[in-house]
Structures are given as C-alpha cells and as structure tokens.
Amino acid sequence: MSDQPERWTEATVYPDMWMDPDDDPRDNEGPAPDGELPTLRDAITNYRLTLRLKCQGLDAEQLARRSVPPSTMSLLGLVRHLASVERDWHNWITDGEPLPKLYGARDADFDGAVADQAVVDAAFADLEREQAALDATLARHADDLGRRLGREHLAVREVLVHMIDEYARHCGHADLLRECVDGRVGQ
C-alpha cells in the first residue's frame, strides 16, 4: 500500500491530457487570434481557466493541502496568491490611493489557505473580483499597448506579459500540486 495517489486523467483521446479536446473550455483549437492584444488576452484567459480547472472537483481539505512539505504552497494558496497579484498590478496602474493588501502580511495568502469552505469560497470570489477590476482598467487603455499607466508608469503590454508569466509559472505548480493531491494529470 502506498500513500501516493494513482495517476489518472479524464481524457480518452490523449492519455496525457487533462480532458478531451472537445470538453476543454480553453480556446486551443483553430487559428490563433490575430494581433498582439488579442493574443495576449487569449493567453491570460487560458491560463486563468487552467488554474480553475486544476482546482475543479476538490474539497476544501484537498485545496488547502500542502502537498510538497516543507512548502506552504497549496492550490488554495495559489488562488489566493493570484488574487493578490491581480490586486497588486491593478494598484500599480491606477492613480488613486492603492487598495490594501488582500490578505495582509507577506505570505498570508499561502499561510491563511486553510481547509474551510468559507475560505475557499472567499478566495475564488476574491480572484474573480480582482481579475475583473484589472481587466476593466486595462480595457480602458487597450487602444495603445505602449501606454504607461499609474504611479509606476507601467505599459499595458508589460502588465499583460507579467500576468501571463505569473499564471504560467503557477499553473506549473498547480499541475504538480494536483497530481500530489489526487493523482490527476494532464496538460
């Protein structure tokens, strides 16, 4: 008997995929979007969906499980962290008073990721709200990807590329965390 979960996937077409292509909500079929802005938006949208997919079907304990000790990283911690990142970027590109840190002190996004359904629900609500706020601000300035915004004078393009980078890195973590939780693997 092993403590390691058995590897599995829902895919029937390609055994290394998360799900069959026809069931995948990400836009991975057909031609890529034309133009720089649609390409950047498509990438961030797909990474955001990937994070949600990696969390799908897990209960609060599984989402909060720190699968690779001594790390405090968990799927729930990643959701909370990315909500914080979305808020930070939004704060940096606005001129008004910045909103407070979402979860307080450094690493509180991971440390506070506990196995409580209310914490899970709040984390996903935070993520959705912060994504919408950042997207709305960027959309108002999408006519010029080189336009510099906010106190930090960051270009719209720079923000989008950094967000893609952040999600890509953490979706890689989510792949490994999910496999440790229940053995589910895939793209």
From TrEMBL:
Pfam families: MST. Residues 1-38 are annotated as: Disordered. SUPFAM superfamilies: DinB/YfiT-like putative metalloenzymes. Gene3D superfamilies: dinb family like domain. InterPro entries: DinB/YfiT-like, MST-like. This is DinB family protein. It comes from Kitasatospora putterlickiae. The lineage of its organism: Bacteria, Bacillati, Actinomycetota, Actinomycetes, Kitasatosporales.
